[in-house]
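Mods, move this if it's the wrong board.
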Amino acid sequence: MKRLGLLPAVGLLLLARSAGGHVAPSIDDNNRYIKLTPLTDRVRLAYTVFMGQVPGAAARRQIDNNHDGQIADGEGQAFGARLGDEVRGNLELTIDGVVVPVTWTTVSVGMGSADVTAGAFSVDFIAWVCLPKPGAAHELRVKDRFVIDRPGETEIKIEDSLGIIVDKASLGGMQNAEHDFRFAGAGGPMATDGLQLNFTAGPDAPPAADGTCKAFKSAGIPPFVFVFAGGLLATVLGTIMVIVQRRSAKRTA
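Not the wrong board. Structure tokens:
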């Protein structure tokens, strides 16, 4: 039987440290980490549910459908898919006033050990959400009503990306210069007021090259290039007209 690939213990530590500054999972609680990365034509959404030692052990017994004491690949992925559907159904993303759907492109279940008697594990979800319209400035609002079992802490972090300027980042009306928000317990500001993120794609932001997002399907060329090209074309045409008029005036004389 094919078993779930083992994620080394150091992998779990790096996940926890990079997401929330922790070096170990919780004992009794489940933590949640959300990372948003605004880009030229889309926003990358990374969502992690980090099961603690005790609730992780209980969940493993439920995931082991055939009760053989080991978590097979299919069993782990089935659990990840069910959890992903539940999370996605409770997420509300609005960009520039338009409600946008969330589709997970990656569902990764990191068990650390395939043994049912083990404890903590994580489930990572990745989604790429297209901006509904071109332009430099955008506003993103996120609400998360997913009720995590035995809730510990939730962290929401805005990740820096090349050429993207974060104009405003607030959670429940509170701003943070580090763009890193944390709260403990169930619900919290993500379920009520939610997160507001205003960002601008500056001239150094990489162009959208793959044409995946329909609003930016102009061969991956950012809007300011069309403005520049239009101005250059107008200048060239104007110069040609002046030359033609001068030649016509000389002939008349």
